């Protein structure tokens, strides 16, 4: 597990959730996912390519998404699947943006595709060189799951790691 | 939400904003903040192309522009707006805040950069800065008198 690549995403998720939801967050269960990813609610997928490559899935159940949406919009929002989907995408956008800012400052360069809805019930299995870590952020609004699989790209693997 | 002194145009009319973001939530959130500063939302856009059209239609005092958007990204839209309207005050608002991105935006004519999640106190100071002498801050009491 490449913790030096994953830690910026954990820090970013922690900070963005705390700031957005105006509450403390706690990192709950952290597990290595050996089997295929199983979606828990409304999910959004972000793909990263460059010095680092991999994918991150954000996953929230619909009631939690509605609560988060209220914070994001600054006002009460109607409950709908569309609202839940947009919520999880915007949350992913902020977390990934913050994390790649930190990684870029450490010398990593890559392209990040905008978050897309992840509708599949099952995702790809993790592999030997790209293990997936699943963590649950406990917030006052509910649980937010982040499933992250990241590795150095082939051309970067033999380079000395940036400080 | 924290209370700020009302920020008005020097002619004491509300500052007029165009909010550009592909996320409806992000637009609503930023709009709510600038309205709490006494501003008026004159237009919204969900992509760079619409932002250009909306700028021409509304001639806002300040544009709050996301970077990563479909069809046309915010930096390109900012460049096109500034090319046509050199006086345009564009503030980039993005979750991606690394140096290269900020420099690229500033080189294309953006006046400032705010990182998401947007903090009201930071946005307030940035708007005050980009408006410069064209804005006045006043408490509601002072305005009443």
What order do the SSEs of chain A take from the amino end to the carboxyl end, as H and E? HEEEHHEEEEH
Q: What is the rounded distance between the termini of chain A?
A: 18 Å
Mean pLDDT of chain A, to the nearest integer, reads: 83
The mean pLDDT of chain B is 92
Q: What fraction strand of chain B?
A: 15-25%
List the helices and strands and how they pair.
The complex is a heterodimer of chains A (163) and B (145).
Chain A: H1 3-21, E1 26-33, E2 42-50, E3 52-60, H2 62-73, H3 81-105, E4 110-112, E5 116-117, E6 132-139, E7 142-152, H4 154-157
Antiparallel strand pairs in A: 1-6, 2-3, 2-4, 2-5, 3-7, 6-7
Helix pairs in contact in A: 1-3, 2-3
Chain B: E1 6-9, E2 16-20, H1 24-36, E3 40-45, H2 48-58, E4 62-65, H3 74-84, E5 90-94, H4 99-107, E6 112-115, H5 120-131, E7 135-138, H6 140-144
Parallel strand pairs in B: 2-3, 2-4, 4-5, 5-6
Antiparallel strand pairs in B: 1-7
Helix pairs in contact in B: 2-3
Describe the overall structure.
The complex is a heterodimer of chains A (163) and B (145). With 163 residues, chain A is α+β, with helices and mostly antiparallel strands. In chain A, strands 1, 2, 3, 4, 5, 6 and 7 form a 7-stranded antiparallel beta sheet that branches. Chain A is 37% helix and 31% strand. Chain A is globular, with a radius of gyration of 15 Å. Chain A starts with a helix and ends in a 6-residue tail after the last helix. Chain A has a single domain, classed as Chemotaxis protein chec, CATH 3.40.1550. Chain A contains 4 helices and 7 strands, in the order H-E-E-E-H-H-E-E-E-E-H. Chain B is α/β, with parallel strands linked by helices. Chain B is 42% helix and 22% strand. Chain B has 6 helices and 7 strands. Chain B has helices spanning 24-36, 48-58, 74-84, 99-107, 120-131, 140-144; strands at residues 6-9, 16-20, 40-45, 62-65, 90-94, 112-115, 135-138. In chain B, the strands form 2 sheets. In chain B, strands 3-2-4-5-6 form a 5-stranded parallel beta sheet, sandwiched between helices. A two-stranded antiparallel ribbon of chain B has the order 1-7. In chain B, helix 1 (24-36) links the parallel strand 2 (16-20) and strand 3. In chain B, helix 2 packs parallel to helix 3 (74-84). Chain B is globular. Classes of the chains: A alpha+beta (163), B alpha/beta (145). At the A-B interface, helix 1, helix 2 and helix 3 of A face helix 1 of B.
């Amino acid at each position: 597990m490449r913790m030096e690549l994953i830690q910026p995403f954990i820090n970013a998720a922690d900070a963005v959730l705390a700031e957005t939801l105006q509450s403390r967050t706690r990192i709950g269960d952290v597990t290595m996912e050996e089997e295929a990813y199983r979606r828990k609610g409304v999910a959004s997928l972000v793909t990263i390519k460059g010095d680092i490559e991999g994918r991150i899935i954000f996953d929230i159940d619909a009631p939690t998404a509605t609560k988060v949406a209220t914070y994001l919009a600054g006002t009460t929002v109607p409950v709908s699947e569309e609202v839940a989907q947009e919520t999880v995408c915007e949350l992913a956008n902020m977390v990934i943006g913050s994390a790649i800012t930190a990684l870029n400052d450490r010398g990593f360069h890559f392209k990040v595709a905008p978050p897309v809805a992840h509708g599949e019930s099952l995702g790809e299995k993790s592999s030997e060189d790209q293990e997936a870590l699943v963590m649950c952020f406990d917030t006052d609004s509910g649980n937010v799951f982040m499933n992250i699989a990241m590795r150095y790209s082939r051309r970067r693997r033999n380079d000395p790691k940036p400080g | 939400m924290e209370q700020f002194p009302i920020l008005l145009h020097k002619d004491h009319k509300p500052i007029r904003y165009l909010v550009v973001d592909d996320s409806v939530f992000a637009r609503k959130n930023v709009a709510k903040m600038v309205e709490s500063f006494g501003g008026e939302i004159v237009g919204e856009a969900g992509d760079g192309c619409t932002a250009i059209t909306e700028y021409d239609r509304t001639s806002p005092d300040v544009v709050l522009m996301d970077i990563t958007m479909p069809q046309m990204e915010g930096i390109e839209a900012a460049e096109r707006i500034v090319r046509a309207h050199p006086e345009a005050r564009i503030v980039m608002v993005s979750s991606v805040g690394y140096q290269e991105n900020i420099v690229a935006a500033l080189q294309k004519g953006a006046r400032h950069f705010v990182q998401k999640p947007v903090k009201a106190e930071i946005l307030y100071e940035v708007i005050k800065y980009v408006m410069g002498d064209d804005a006045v801050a006043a408490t509601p009491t002072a305005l009443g008198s």
